[in-house]
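[step 3/7] fold_predict: job queued, chain A
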Amino acid sequence: MNFLADESCDFTVVRALRDEGHEVIDVAEISPAADDEDIIGLAYSEAKILLTEDKDFGRLVYAQAHPSSGVVLIRFPSNIRSILPKVI
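[step 4/7] structure written:
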């Protein structure tokens, strides 16, 4: 699968998906501090599923009907973040 990871997405997720053979472009690597609308537009134009921990993308896609190729909202329990590299 092809993904675009928002800057809010923990890089451990990016690394784990890449290790499994998925194409993952990390916004932090190509366009740091990009605007949310630009990010969702880039994901859509490149037919990539957006990975994010930012709930603002829900507003763009669902409330404002911004076109998308899909959005995955990632939420980690607070006690998991410190052991992410071991879990993923």
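[step 5/7] annotate
The longest strand covers residues 2-5.
The longest helix spans residues 36-45.
exit 0
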